[in-house]
Structure formats: structure tokens, C-alpha cells
Design goal:
With about 325 residues, the chain is α/β, with parallel strands linked by helices. Helices cover about 35% and strands about 15% of the residues.
């Protein structure tokens, strides 16, 4: 079963598959692992691939997609590919060159979706996480509306089909939505979202504005040592998730993914293991009861695994607001 059988329409008319394959991998995973995993994902039926400049694997993701096109497994138009504009490029004059650099790495003519990765600008340069001598992030002021206008021009130039945001709070979304002369609304907001952090208020707001919420960290993240508190609760070990997995004869991961789909959330799943990749695509093969959705709603504890502490202190830091 291909993910292209399960899509939702974005507010610009394009379709996005509701299950995506994420390519931000944990420590110890090599670029060749990502290349092979992306090929496996396409073979398994994934048609929505999510990457970013900051993940430093765009070349491998592009290579995987192109090899599957050359084999005849897919056509370019079968694949929905997302990439993201990193914080060091959050300057109006750098938006198009950054997207062109991404396309050159992918060796593709366009991406389907391009997102502002975070609403915070870091110092320009090759260092993804620039810091001063005290280890503090070098942040800069950013005009989100000017960045958005530059993205709109990229869409008009045919370099990207849809444009959106990631890690924006309600206030930051409203800044774009209320921009005088807005040409295109953000089609989505990609944020951390899982049963321990279900983003109910932000989801309701996005739905009210016809903006799709895309969930990353939907399985409790890859527990990256650099970014995630290693003493935090492990989502997939949750006893309620485990009992529902037994009830439905599915894995806890599939229960967590299915939960998002039934809430109207587009969900990303990550793995380099073939059996997990093939299992995740089975999310369309069953349905949770409304009672069990409520049970999963009850797991929410506002636990954010990825608080982006490297951006703390910036006036645009997105996670200080309630949502």
C-alpha cells in the first residue's frame, strides 16, 4: 500500500501524504545509513520524505529518490519532498540562494514543500550552531514577514510548490497570516507532537486557519543525546500505549502514529531498520476507537523532548508562549 493513497489537501490545493518518512537521524547513524533507509522507505510505500539543510543529508536523500526514479519504482511527481530553511539563512537575501543550494544537493528541480525551520535567526555562516567564546548562541533579529515574502517569490519562481513553517507558535503564525499583502498562507506548521505532548490548542488553532499540523518526534523522538534529556520518560514504554498495542495486535509505535492520523495530523516516522520502516506503513490497516483516542488524549503531560535550548533568550524563542 502506498502512502499516496492517503493524502490531505493543503490550502494551496496541493496534496500531502499523511504519513511521511523523517531523515533527521540520531548520533551514530551514517549518511550511507540514511541513503539506504530512504530507499527502503520508498520501496515500502512511503511517498512523503522529510529532510532539511540542518540534517546534512540532503545529498543522500536526493540520491535515494533519484535512484528509485531511475529504477522505475516511482516518478518524481509521486514523491512529496520537504526541506527546510535553517536559522543561519534566515535573512531575506539568503532565502533563494539557500533553497537553490538545497536543490543542488538534492540534484532535483524543485521541492514540494519548503519550511522556515525555526522562527529565530542565527549568525550567518557555515557553522550550523554558531556560538561566542562562552558557548552562547549568536542570535540575530529577524523580520519573519520579509522572510515570508522571499519564500513567496521562490514559490512563484517554481523552485517550490508549497511553503510553510516549523516550530512556530500561534503568535508567530498570526504575524504571517496578518501580514499586509500576504500572497500565500503557510500550508503547514511542523512541530513536535506525540501522546505526551499532543499540542491540542495549537492543532485547533491551525485547523481553524486551514493550516495542516505536521508532527515530528511522533514516537518520542530518536532521543538524540545532544538535545534530549536522557532521564525523560520513554514514550514507547508507556503502559497504556503498550496495553492498546496488545488490544489492537499492533506495536506501541503504530498506536502512536495512528493516534495522530485520526486527529487530522500529518505524521512523520523515522527509522533506519527495515522491519520498522515496513511496519510503520501498516498504520493505515486499522482504526482506533473514539474511546481509545480519548484514553490517548489523557496521556498528555506537556512533555517537550526537544525544547531547542540553543535558541533560549531570543525574543522570538517560540516555546515560551502556552502554544
Amino acid at each position: 500500500m502506498s502512502c499516496n493513497d492517503h493524502c490531505v489537501k493543503l490550502n494551496d490545493g496541493h496534496l500531502i501524504p499523511t504519513l511521511g518518512f523523517g531523515t533527521c537521524m540520531s548520533e551514530g547513524v551514517t549518511k550511507s545509513n540514511v541513503l539506504e533507509a530512504t530507499k527502503l522507505a520508498i520501496d515500502a510505500g512511503f511517498r512523503h520524505i522529510d529532510t532539511a539543510y540542518a540534517y546534512q543529508v540532503e545529498e543522500e536523500v536526493g540520491q535515494a529518490i533519484r535512484s528509485k526514479i531511475e529504477e522505475g519504482t516511482v516518478k518524481r511527481e509521486d514523491i512529496f519532498l520537504t526541506s527546510k530553511l535553517w536559522c543561519t539563512c534566515l535573512y531575506p537575501e539568503l532565502v533563494r540562494p539557500s533553497l537553490e543550494r538545497t536543490l543542488a544537493s538534492l540534484q532535483l528541480d524543485y521541492v514540494d514543500l519548503y519550511l522556515i525551520h525555526y522562527p529565530v535567526a542565527l549568525k550567518q555562516g557555515d557553522d550550523l550552531f554558531p556560538t561566542d567564546q562562552n558557548g552562547e548562541s549568536l542570535v540575530n533579529a529577524v523580520d519573519l514577514c520579509a522572510i515570508w515574502e522571499a519564500l513567496e517569490k521562490c514559490k512563484d519562481a517554481g523552485l517550490v510548490k508549497s511553503i510553510g513553517v516549523s516550530n512556530f507558535n500561534r503568535r508567530q503564525l498570526e504575524r504571517i497570516l496578518n501580514k499586509p499583502g500576504l500572497k500565500y498562507k503557510p500550508v503547514c506548521n511542523q512541530v513536535e507532537c506525540h501522546p505526551y505532548f499532543n499540542q491540542r490548542k495549537l492543532l485547533d488553532f491551525c485547523k481553524s486557519k486551514d493550516i495542516v499540523l505536521v508532527a515530528y518526534g511522533a514516537l518520542g523522538t530518536q532521543r538524540y543525546k545532544r538535545w534530549v534529556d536522557q532521564s525523560s520518560l520513554v514514550l514507547l514504554n508507556d503502559p497504556i500505549l503498550s496495553s492498546l498495542a496488545t488490544k489492537y495486535k499492533r506495536s506501541p509505535a503504530l498506536i502512536a502514529l495512528r493516534y495522530q492520523l485520526q486527529r487530522g495530523v500529518v505524521v512523520l516516522a523515522q527509522s533506519i531498520k527495515e522491519h520498522e520502516i515496513r511496519e510503520n506503513i501498516q498504520v493505515f490497516g486499522f482504526q482506533l476507537s473514539s474511546e481509545d483516542i480519548k484514553v490517548l488524549d489523557g496521556l498528555n503531560r506537556n512533555l517537550r523532548y526537544l525544547p531547542a535550548e540553543f535558541l533560549l533568550g531570543h525574543p522570538n524563542y517560540p516555546f515560551s508562549d502556552e502554544y
